[in-house]
Amino acid sequence: MTVTGERASLFEPEDTLDVSDFAPKPASASTIRPEQVRAVSEAARFRSREPQSPAPLSREPRRHRTGRNVQLNIKARSEAIETFYALADREGWVLGEAFERAVAALSRELGQK
Length: 113
Known about the structure:
3 helices; 0% strand
């Protein structure tokens, strides 16, 4: 069978399909250095996806089974978050317990005024 504009039939015997002209493309050695790519991309104002600095909050993951199954996501200043984590760590509380104690303390404080 010769290469034509037609597709090969699925039902023809295998020995009639000649694929001897097909070969892998030769590997081309790239002469472009990574520094050149960086220079061109910076000139074109492409943003780098590489991290500029380590994550500000790098902690050990916390895995506890407490029966608490509702999540609360809040935005806070990093100082407040660090203080919250430090209090929980110092007292040996999981974060849910620390939050519940903080809410109880705030309720007591506001109830006394």
